[in-house]
Amino acid sequence: MVDVEAFIQSPEHRPKSSIIIAEGIPLIDLSPINYKDTTSSLSIETLVKEIGSACKEWGFFQVINHKVPLDKRERIEECAKKFFGLSLEEKVKVRRDEVNLLGYFEAEHTKNVRDWKEVYDFNVQQPTFIPPSLDQNLHFQWDNRWPHIPPQFREACEEYAEEVEKLAYKLMELIAMSLGLEPNRFRDFFIHNTSNIRLNHYPPCPYPHLALGLGRHKDTGVLTVLAQDDVGGLQVKRKSDGEWIQVNPIFNSFIINVGDMIQVWSNDAYESVEHRVMVNSEKDRFSIPFFLKPALYTDVKPLEELTDDRNPPKYSPINWGKFRTARMQSNFAKSNIDNLQIYHFKLS
């Protein structure tokens, strides 16, 4: 028996009956860096400016001609549908718990309200490197739990992860250049990365006026690369007026958004933006976000190249391992206060 009360959003956060379609979120063509016959120094320069403008004005953009093979995306999407179509008894065989934080989960909360969804998480890099300084106080494990059904599930996930990770690193080079940095400025932060992929399933919901598939939140990591199906439902909070804007699906595109760690590295030049997911009363929705995340030992702080006397650092250093651990603990313990956020590290 489903406890409907657990899913009901407070009145101020419930979906509106009218939907504003996102016409302003930039659509960026990555051909200049992916196809030699169209590459020129001018077009790459234009591309970098487009990326910088999108990060500054929206915190979100969509990309096409990204070079992630469509067949690999379709394969993981098909495996996700087959997995979520299994019985609950079968899915909970790989259910995450308070020790191992990877696998299937059906009772996630955002802002202390239950989301109308089920998920499956796996880490891209295995095994996860845990530094000794963090290991002493770490009671978590990051071990991928692979289901036996469908039989090609693990292979499809790993092949897709390899391709979308390449795209994420290309985007980080463009973001670095848009900030006036060397293209490879961020690469060393990801040698022992903790990046992960999530498979989302949002079943049809009979309470679309009360519930959300995923409540309002900002992404804690560095960069998110989202594949969504043709059902749609992602909404972005527009920076200019605070309105919720729906991002309509574009075939074979990815939706990109800046995470909290880029906001800190850029010293607030680029801002992590709130977003949420609407439910659909008639259709299942599936999406697959890739979350680019640094090594656990990384101390994230405003980059020296981007700070000076006129623009001093706005954040004290954030140890990613401790930050992520604190956020994960909040998945299992409801609280009346907001969980750890980057604003807790703001310098006065």
UniProtKB/TrEMBL annotation:
Lineage top rank: taxon: Eukaryota
InterPro entries linked: DIOX_N (IPR026992), IPNS-like_FE2OG_OXY (IPR044861), IPNS-like_sf (IPR027443), Oxoglu/Fe-dep_dioxygenase_dom (IPR005123)
Domain Fe2OG dioxygenase: 193-294
Gene3D superfamilies attached to this UniProt entry: B-lactam Antibiotic, Isopenicillin N Synthase, Chain
Keywords: Dioxygenase, Iron, Metal-binding, Oxidoreductase
GO molecular function annotation: dioxygenase activity; metal ion binding
Stored Pfam families: 2OG-FeII_Oxy, DIOX_N
Family: Belongs to the iron/ascorbate-dependent oxidoreductase family.
Listed name of the protein: Probable 2-oxoglutarate-dependent dioxygenase At3g111800
Species annotation: Cicer arietinum (Chickpea)
Gene: LOC101515788
